[in-house]
Amino acid sequence: MRAARKRLGLLGVSVTDARGRRIRRGPAAGLARWLPRAAPSRARGNVAIALLSDRHMRALNQKHRGKNRATDVLSFPAEGESLGDIAIASGIAARQAREAGHSVSIELRVLALHGLLHLLGYDHETDHGEMSRVEERLRRRAGLPGGLIGRSRAGGPRHA
Fold first, then answer.
1. C-alpha dihedral sign at 53, 88, 121, 84
2. Which domains are seen in the chain, by residue range?
3. Contact 48, 65 (CB under 8 A)
């Protein structure tokens, strides 16, 4: 496993539920192995992804961004060995997957990649399209359908 992490750019990923239990089955199975392969080569450190209820995400969005509504993905950068944490609302991910016409597994990948880019310092609200361009390139390389930024612009599910 260490050799694989070294070859894949030293990005370690864990995926848990709201109680911190590792997720090994269901739509999130394989997400921890997939993200290091899809990530930009400069992604280094550890990323913890938590799949949360929509209600929990609403509380986090209110606390950290002052927005009293659930959102699909939030990123929390860290310092040191850890790149940070990504929170994904499982209910919203399932609804967005249905609306986009693909599996929940694919939607979780779209959200995890988007969250990782935020951890790397990208901000689609202020960067004049840079994050959108990077997300598009990585998404195509990984064989994923349209990313969150492009969907929002095309009138799809809103990412906030």
1. positive
2. 2-152 (3.40.390.30)
3. no
* 135 phi, psi to nearest 5 deg: -60, -45
- 47-94 pLDDT tens trace: 999 999 999 999 999 999 999 999 999 999 997 778 999 999 999 999
- 11-22 exposure pattern, b = at least 16 Cβ within 10 A, e = fewer: bbbebbeeeeee
SS3 88: strand
d(CA 90, CA 88) in angstroms, rounded, equals 6
Which pair of structure tokens corresponds to residue 94?
């399932």
CA separation for the pair 124, 63 (Å, rounded) = 21
Among 41, 27, 34, 40, CA closest to 13: 34
The strand pair at 73-77 and 82-89 is best described as antiparallel
Q: Are the C-beta atoms of residues 108 and 27 closer than 8 Å to each other?
A: yes
Separation between Cα atoms, residue 77 and residue 120, nearest integer Å: 8
- Token readout for 142 is 């990984």
Of 101, 121, 126, 97, nearest to 110 by C-alpha is 97
On the CB side of 98, CA atoms within 13 Å amount to 5
